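Risk register update: the risk of archive-format incompatibility is retired. Evidence:
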Amino acid sequence: MTQFKEDNLPIEKLCTLVRDGPNVNKTIFTTLEKSIKEECPEFPGFVDLGSCILHTVHNAFGKGLEKLPLNIGQQCLDVHALFKHSAARREDYEKLQFQLDIDAHQFQQHTQVRWLSLGPAITRILEQWDALLIFVKDLGENSRTEPKSVNYRHVAALLKPDEKGATKVFLEFLKNAIPIFEEFLTLFQKTTPTVHLVYDGMCQTLMKLMCRFLKPDTVKGKFGGELSILSCDDVQIQLSDKDIVMGDDARGVLVKLGSDKQIIVMLGIRAFFCAAIIHLQHKLPLHNRLLKDLGCLNPQKLEYKSTQSAIQNIARKLQPNVDVSCALDEWKILQMDNNVAMINKEQIIEHYWNAIFALKSVANTVKYVVLPCIVKSGLVFSSDECRVNGVCLSMPG
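Archived output:
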């Protein structure tokens, strides 16, 4: 508060405190809000859009990994380390790659704090699978020269004849599942505003996971907060083993396993889906009305009737001094404006709205007077809410 005063910042105009998930940041949120209200009784309070959705989706994948009977993350680290620390071993492996006509690629390093760095690491292991099996087996042929490192022991254990099949199924399964998470994270790490896409993006990501694991009738017709109440750990609404979506490559390896191994693998895959989905259900702000309403700023939704109530709610929350009736009037006119319909909806969102607000009336005056401040107040959140680490303040211009 002292720094705000020294910098002459109008603290009553602070819009929000964006944060990631730890409880200490939630405490900062409520404490700072209370302090500002004591200093400025007219302060309406922070706009709360929830915590960082990128952390939530990223951690959901990590929660799923924890439920697998194999530590795939550690396996990727072990394979990389097996070659990283031995130039002679890398040279021998390159000779084997040449003999087998396999691409001479090195193994990718997985970063433990970034679960989705597993994607490239897993892809590379699967690409090199045949060569890796032969190489590790040959390393263990002579007990005198066999590596003594923990990394080697881990890798050798998972590639034994009775374990390699299950190991490959899990690798193929994760390779197939990771793009669902990566697509979401890639979209919302852009530097352009994406807040108008967040709510639908959250719901669609959750639905994709659910549709791979739950019966269609369970998910059909549900969206937003309705998705958060589905009990995905209820076996009655789960798909059968043969219908769970795990990818053709994973399925092809699975059917070659013995029945006991198949049961263990499928229990692990079920546990992965359950853990990831439940985490998303509990942590994503699926009940956040404002976040849902900000979707009306999406050019693809402009003509929807439901956006009329949404723009009114945005006005009340973000621009309380604006006449909501006037905002609604302009929104209805915008929905019927032929000139707006001709504007390219595929361009950057700021450019799209700037093109609309540059339109003139028949009297050659600005056509939209009230909407610009409302729309800009919504887009000011940009994607900062999604990618924040720690806490930071947002103040609309």
